[in-house]
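Subject — a protein and its fold
Fields — amino acid sequence, structure tokens
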Amino acid sequence: MERPWWHEAVVYQIYPRSFMDSNGDGIGDLDGVTARLDYLSWLGVDVIWLCPIFRSPNDDNGYDISDYQGIMAEFGTMADFDRLLAEAHRRGMRVILDLVLNHTSDEHPWFIESRSSRDNPKRDWYVWRDGRNGREPNNWASIFEGSAWKLDPATGQYFLHLFSERQPDLNWENPSLRQAMYDMVRWWLDKGIDGFRIDAISHLKKAPGLPDLPNPHRLRYVPSYDMHMNQPGVLDFVDELSRETFQRYDIMTVGEANGVSPAQAVEWVGGEHRRLSMILQFEHWTLWSRDPHAGLDVVALKRIFGRWQRTLHERGWNALYLENHDLPRVVSRWGDPQRFRYESATALATMYFLMEGTPFIYQGQELGMANTVFHSLAEFDDVFARNRIAQMRAEGRDDSDILAELALAARDNSRTPMPWDDSANAGFSSAEPWLRINPEYRAVNVAAQRKADRSVLHFYRRLIALRAAEPALIHGRYDLLLERNRQIYAYTRTLGDRGFLIMCNLTSREARYRHRHLPLRHDALALANQEVPAHPVVMQCVLRPFEARVYRIDPT
């Protein structure tokens, strides 16, 4: 059976502002990405995902779009983008764009028209409501803290903003708005791009009537995600979007779908529906977001990933990831960058990369980059961090406590400039970068790791090559082993007469592994992140801290 090209792909996510600066203004740009395409080709990447490059006032670093068909001036011109696309295609790589459909910037011409008067034709392109008893229309909270509503004094109504107050929500109930979106999407696809990652797609539908959430105090905003996340009817919007645009092209579409369960995901990505290629799920975020100080719950991680693997096998397709622009660095969350940086970065990589699905690498992840160091609250750039600082100060929290909390969880951790070498500004720019360089750049950078015999970068390259060479690691069935083991994540991938055993100790302590059904032959070792003793046959072994091994096995 012919399978989609994106089943075999490896995706590399680029945060353009922090990837490579070509013109010395301290801000990454499109020509900088073009200049580093050979690096990505050497690594083995098939698809480049560009975070938003559209014109924007940058309240949320590009996720507040003021012109869907213009390039952010700091990033270059449309000619620069066309050259990047052509150069990527020349190297056999594809390019997907980050598309924000739930909201725009408050500087978008549509919103400027919408807020100009209550009877403007574009008024209904956004979500406007009258206040209630001198307050907001309901008690919904913004995902970025505070109320989800902002009063527009000129027209006397409130507009909805699920994210920043400068990101007004579009009203997808309006057919004219939807058609304008489809025209824009087809315009980009006709330029030859290879697909989209669709931001916040599960938020397009809001609960009818925008009702309050239960809130006895009525003075505090309460989390309101259930009222605007994966609501019944959202798939009707996705269906129409897909019919009008995606299904007409051979592309890859990735929906950021918070609130969608594995069972529901079949409706989003099942082949018979032809809606999306895959979705980025959020379930594993809960293992660290509740308590950033807590270590990894390996059993819970196996339960979450296993559920997605089993549910979508032969029914849909998974997007596999541990890092992105909204998360702190994974080696700081679940690894041990002080004692076992190489080991933990490569063990975590092996664990997720060889499951069934398309693997995503976020820039710098392939180096084992850790969280950065913040010296003051003034260093935080992210809008969520700024809002959180204001909220915690209003609650009477001390600045030192606020700094300690945000240092662990802030999105700025993953947005520091890419360290290319140990020169000034890490080879990212000839000028002072827009965001402070991670101070570890002299030791953790591309040039140093390319030269080293043993590095996280070389391990990722070997991991990509192994997956590309083995259909069982792409299309094979996933079966979990050691379900209740609190240290080892082990599973098999099998397809016909080919099979692999993947075993990863995800802790900083030794872990004992015993394979009950068949011996492990040393000559069947396909990949390991540490030297493995050359015993001909192994029935049990002790895995060192963050040790990972991949064995070829006979599925029978």
Q: What stands out?
A: The first helix runs from residue 30 to 35. The domain at 477-553 is CATH 2.60.40.1180 (Immunoglobulin-like).
